[in-house]
Amino acid sequence: MNRFYGTGVAMVTPFQTDGQVDYDALKKLINYLIDGGVDYLVSLGTTGESATLNKEEKKQVWAFTAEVVNRRVPLVAGIAGNNTHETVAQIKAFDTTGYDAILSASPHYNKPTQDGIYQHYKAIAEASPLPVILYNVPSRTGSSVSAETTVRLAKDFKNIIGIKEASGNFELLNQLMRDKPEDFLVISGDDPITLQMIAMGGVGLISVVGNALPAKVSGLVRSCLSGDFKTAQPVHYSLVEFTRLMFTEGSPAGIKSALKQLNICGDTLRLPLVPVSTATAEKIGAELQKLR
Fold this sequence. Notes:
Layout: E1 6-10, H1 23-35, E2 40-43, H2 55-69, E3 75-78, H3 84-93, E4 101-105, H4 114-127, E5 132-136, H5 138-141, H6 147-156, E6 160-165, H7 170-179, E7 185-188, H8 194-200, E8 204-207, H9 214-225, H10 229-238, H11 240-248, H12 253-261, H13 278-291
Parallel strand pairs: 1-2, 1-8, 2-3, 3-4, 4-5, 5-6, 6-7
Helix pairs in contact: 1-2, 3-4, 4-6, 6-7, 8-9, 9-10, 11-12, 11-13, 12-13
């Protein structure tokens, strides 16, 4: 499980101006991130606009990503949904070649009870051929996975190895860190509070910002994990404004604007998402100049 210590990056999916997947840019992004020192990659999470890709496109992106990564770093596939039966079917059909785990966000829109969330993840755990990382992101799903539910899942299913926690709820985090099994991984899913979560016992970050600044973000996480918060703090504060801009007009619009200005990929998104405004893009560019 130490494969998922450190910095993971939730990769964007580059698109050509006509909306088709830009595989040349995806290859460029993958190599940029690995060369930047990240520890693992996540393909087709929320940041990858997975909700807008059809099944065949997902299969192609996953296969291409595994081929380009070529086992240089661990690889995680984002497979989630609010239809448990369909999510389980996707996991059973998934070609695991080159992949090390599945990241699965809790069901969105339906607002299940805690027992419903437990039963959803129980079905996933029983079907998955790979270790499972839970994902709690209430700002997107409309419900939160409680500390009690996470601990229950961690204790009941050995292949549920961790959680990407993006609730920002420190009361929940305090309880989770206190009660979880010792080897259960708590990973920050929220760039701005990574330093604080690692100080509490978190094992790293799955980052959006790291798409654009892999060396800086992975350096920050390494400093935190080594307990060198004196080195980490100025880096943390230097990223505050850039990170805020990444989400000002929605994600991944902000990070795609940054990647366009870095000449990694274009800023095309699939509807209903649209690129950031010119004013925000200019602010992103100014911050990039400070940080590079």
